Structure formats: C-alpha cells, structure tokens
Amino acid sequence: MKMTEQKRINIAITAMGGQGGGVLADWIVGMGEAAGWQVQSSSVPGVAQRTGATVYYLELFDGSRSAGEPAPVLSLSPASGDVDLVVAAELMEAGRAIQRKFVTPERTTLIASAHRAYAVSEKEAMGNGVADSEAVHAAAREMARRYISFDMAAVAEQTGSVISAVLFGAIFGSGALPFPREAFEQAIREGGIGVDKSLAAFTAGAVQAQRPDVVAAHEPVAEEAPCWQYRGDDAGVQRLLQDIAQDFPDALTATVLEGVRRMLDHSDLRYARLYVERMLRLLALEYGHAGGDKTDWRFSREAAPKLALWMAYEDTIRVADIKTRSRRFARLYQEVGIDADKVSYFTEFLHPRLEEVAETLPAGLGRWVLRTRWAGRLLEMLFAGPKKLSTQSLPGFLSLYLVACLRPLRRYSLRDSLEQLRINDWLQQLEETVPVDYELACELAALPELIKGYSKTRERGLGNFNLLAAAARALSGSLDSADILRQLKAAALKSERGTELAAALARHHLAHLLQPEAGSATAATEKMAVLSCAE
C-alpha cells in the first residue's frame, strides 16, 4: 500500500546558536513519539548569520499502518516544495527558507519571528546596510499557504524564557500539528529545562499566533524617540534637565536628553553641560535664520545625535570601562546560560595600536611619544599589539579596571584634545554655513556619520569626513550644493576603497580636494598637523 501525504508531516526549523532550535526539535520529536508516530530528525549546521542558521529537519509519519504496508523510508533533508511547516527563529531566515523553495503556497505554513538579528553583511556596511524587512513579509504572505509572524524575541524576554518556547507555542496556535495542547505541554515538562518559564512562553506564543491580525501589523510605523528619565538625585543633573526642558523645543527634547545621558555615562556632568552648550549654539543658528522651519527644526534634529555620538567617542578608557561593568558580566552569564556563581572564563581579545595607547596619555606627553621614535617603540613593545585577557582572573580584570579608572583624567588626554579640536572645527563650519546655505548646513550636520569604528576604519572615515567638509566649503552658496554633498556622502559610504568617492568628486569637479596640499584630505595628514601644533 502506498504511503499517503496525509500520514506524513515534514517540518523545517531554522535557528541560530542560542535560540534553542535543537530543544524545539527535541520537543517535537518527543511529542510525536509519545503519540505513537514514527519520527526522524536531522540537522545541517550553518555558520550563523554568515551562511545561514542551522536547519533542523523532521519527518513525522503516522505509526498506524495497514497489514502488509511497508515501513516508510524518511528523508534526511528538506526538499523544495515538500515541506508542510517552516519555523524560522529570525525574520531573514524565513527569507532564506523562501529562497530555498521550502515554502509553497499550496502546502506550507510559515511561522517566523519578526525580530532581526543582523547579518555580518549588514553590520559591516559603512552606511545603513539593514535589509528591508517588509520585503520578506511581503514575500512570505505571497508564498506561504499561511503566514504567522510577530516579535517572538520580545515575548521570550517578557516571559524570561527563550525564543524556542514561544515558537513551540506558535506551532500549537497555528494548528499545523495534529496534537492536543496537553501533548505540547507534556513535551516541555519531560524536557526538564526551565519548565515553568517555558510553559509561560509557550502560552504567550500560542495566544499571539491565534490572533486574527497577527500578520496584518507590518506597516511601517513611525517610532517616537524614547525619552530618558533620570533616576538619580544629583542636584546638578536635575538643574541641567530643567534647563533643557525650558530652552529646547519639544521636537528636540528627547534627543538632547539622550545626548546628556551619553555624556554622563561617558565622562561627567561637566561634559554633559558642554554638550548642551554646544547644542544651544546650534539652536541659536536656527532661531536666527529665516530659512529654517521652526516647526521642523531639521538642522538641529540632524546635528543633535551626531554631536552626541561624536562627543561620546570610544577610547581605551571607554573600552576598559564597558568591559569591567557588572551588568555586562550579568548579560554574558545570561547569554551563555550559566549562573554567576559557577566557574567561568571570558577572554577579551584586544589589539591596541601605538596611537591609541599614546592618545590615552596627557596631551603633551602623548604628542612627545608619537614624535619620538625610541619612546614610541618602547610604548609599543610594552602595551600595544594583540592581547588576550580573562576578566574572570584578578590580573586580567585589574589591568582593565585600572585603565577604566583613568576616566576623570580623560579631559587632559591627547585623544580628548584631538576630538574636541575636530568637533570645534565642525561647529565653526556649521556656524559659517547656516546663514549662507541652510540646506547645505543640514547635510554638513549629518557628515559625522562617516566617522565610526576604530583603528584604521575610523581613520578612513575621518579622512572622508575631512574631504567632504572641504567639499562643503567649496560648494557653499552654489546651486544644488546640498544635493551634491548628499551624493558625495552616499559615495563615501559605499566601500572602504574610496573609488566611488573619488569618482563622485571628479564628476562634480572637486577632484583637486584629493590632493594633500588642497586641504586636510586624510586623517593622517590632519592628525600630524594637530600634533605639530603648540600645546
């Protein structure tokens, strides 16, 4: 007797490390076997977001067979057009399943979490490399017989569990498997891992999956910036926050407050006041310019987050501070699933360069080290180069903790001297540009987006920033200046090679800016100029 499709259920689960894909597969296997079904499970490991998540493939066959009917031969991997249920623990994995043709309109139920775990290609992009989530939702609605999607990572966090339990609940809520709720819950109990929280997450996932509008809410929604609330009792901070509420329009308040939060976390109250003072300077430009839209505050809204990110630059002190914070250890313990009282070792991989070590020193001493060959070689031999430290060991933790303790002295460091000089030059150029060309000033305010990362990546970004700042000076007051600067920035963000930017500069007759004598074309040129200045 031939095996019928009604007796066979094929399931493909895609999940990354830490999402519990294997546990989810085990729950389904246990549930099927308890019901007397023949179940086979296999997995093909991926390399997380680089080439795709691990694919767990399960085939379930109804154990009841007629007399003389041969035992079924089950497959080890999913085939195109032959999958009944696809479960994706992250949205882009659902897209990959569609690309592999696991999802078909006449057969497949697709269950996917709507949250994103960004791929390496998205993270390494110099600009905004995030893929379009709505395109995946649209393809899923078109290709699946039924599509269920909501933010399952958020539900897992709310219930204190992992996403696999929410996915298991969504599978039950979809009705894709012919097993009662008791069978699902019993599979979780027999698993014996975080039973109570897993059951809570299972229930929440089932409820969400049964909502009639569970896939309808994927229209882009404009999100309001969260407004930081100060929980401390420092009178100076409280006065500063009161001043912000009085001096800034409502459209800017949340962004400026977030900037203050970053300055307090990065340095201190004095630094937060400096950020607010600089923002008031920029806001005054907008008040004084007739071309600015006082209901939109476009220039100030563009400058506020860029200024905050630039002022909260990451140096060796900042890195050491973040790596020795207690809440970071708590997060790491949670991610690897161990208790804080268990023996564990976290290894930090560091590769400080001579420049980054010297910039931690007082400004005068740091300049001298970078100018003096033997001193630079000695410092490089002692502190620079690749290093591995365990923050679970006393020597490793203390070495980073002592660097973090230099935070009050940061304002005297060479790195702070360099960054404040660069920021002041940018602010001065903004003050010169707003009265002449408001649209160009808005684009100039967005240019610090180019400065990101660390080491050579940051140097390249800073070099591009200097090039485009020089281009803005050359374009000021000309026709289509803002549009041209916008195009140059887009070209600079396309790749690290710089070929696109060079071509764009030539296209707009600005190729002369690439010559070092024409201006500060590279970060290295600008840096040496700063180092040669008197203290």
Automatic annotation (TrEMBL):
Residues 17-205 form the Pyruvate/ketoisovalerate oxidoreductase catalytic domain. The keyword Oxidoreductase applies. Residues 254-468 form the DUF6537 domain. NCBIfam families: PRK08312.1. It comes from Zobellella aerophila. Keywords: Oxidoreductase. This is Indolepyruvate oxidoreductase subunit beta family protein. PANTHER family: INDOLEPYRUVATE OXIDOREDUCTASE SUBUNIT IORB. Pfam families: DUF6537, POR. Signal peptide: none annotated.
